[in-house]
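Problem 12. The chain below contains 502 residues. Write out its predicted structure in token notation.
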Amino acid sequence: MLTEEKRKLTAIGKQDNFITVFEKLTTNSELTFSEKSLILATAIIFLKHYEKDNRFISYADLAYYIILKYSLKYQDYHPLYDFSINFGFYPIVSTLIKQDLHPESNFQDYLVSIRLEEFRNPKDYIETLEQNLESEKFLEDLANEKSYLAPTSFGKSSIIVDYLLRNLSNTTKVGIIVPTKSLLMQTYQMIRSADLEKRIIMHDEMYNDEESFIAVFTQERALRLVNRKNIHFDILIIDEAHNLLKHDGGNRQVLLSRLISKNLRNNPAQKVIYLSPLIEDIANLRVSESQEIKTHKIKFNIKEPEIFELTIDAQKFQYNRFVNQFYELDNTHQNKFKYIIGNSRKKNFIFENSPVRIEKTAKDFSTFLPEITNDIIINEVLDVLKSEVHEDFYGITYLKHGVIYLHGKLPDLIKEYLESKFREIDNVKYLIANTVILEGINLPFEVLFILNTYRLQGKELINLIGRINRLNEIFNSDVVELEKLLPSVDNSDQMVPVISVG
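Solution.
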């Protein structure tokens, strides 16, 4: 955020009239007619300031938040429709029309509903205007190094497939580099379903001197193949490219940098694609001043998380990032597990930071949940875990209460199996995990509860929040719930009161 932009937001946040009404809107309190008029007028003012200087992105974000909150609370969708039409938030426009929340009242509305089909992606979802334009610019860009930077769930997987469809030949060797083994199968399945008519390999040992192939590798496997077979990739697609910027003592970023550099020596004409939801300035990835990486970035996110905190003395606060203020809500008089149960939805992600704490949380939390009986599918999963893992595997006990836990020390096959069961089984409502979820694993979470933020960096937190209510899950549902555009994020750490920010 620019200094001037931040200064003006801070000043606005100190104006008494605005503070009072904005707090009431944020916390879902009732507004009077005059307060409704004031808050909507404020949104218009912010939009006009953004139109004068498009660098002030947070002004547009704030206007959108006000309009979205107002429209959802009062079921008055005219402001949201008008904003979404003018700002190109076409998935929202399509939903409002289809669900008769904004009936076509004139010829212009009718034309809008027809034009929306022009923004339908081949994967059958409507894109935002910005998403559509930036995606096409990215695909047409002939630069050897380029990036696609977009919020989590904004179609980076589709970009990979669309790019390959335009750039594959009979001799093309492609390396899609994912940061962890947890992501291999998910990415492999995505590429396989695209039917690109290329052999897809997931391990360096699977290479059989093919002239053309698509490799879905970790950086370790890709580097081993380049070293062992002395080959090169024509195209490198680096998923979660922000890992190149990490300096946490690990060797992942070192191996990834080494792979890109060595492949460049073997193939000066290599094409490198960087994908990330977190990089602010792509120049930070450069290893030399002469290196040029073209940037294609989506600035606006149509999700705006609602952030809550449960303190050590069981007080509940709601945080508003635009004015950097906490609003005190009712005292819950609940411990964190009862609070989680009371605020949970169909699928819930509980974040802890270490394997030991994850397993302890699963053990403690399951005692607050009833045992699930007569669920045939869960019983089948329990039998599989008993026979394939061990009868005393802790996960068996917790699964009986609808809880699954994941961390890096679990074998990959078990993690992948449990992830699939979390997706499939309605009675399995809770998943407890750490940063294993950060690296692109897509699960149908509706609420995030953060129990510990130790060593969780700000951008990792943003990535974590982005996993909640992914756009394809919102807009591809039979009945679209626009409330999911305000995903709930709760910090419920009652050991140390830590603030979660989006």
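Discussion. The first strand starts at residue 145 and ends at 149. Students who got a different answer should revisit the alignment rule from Section 12.3.
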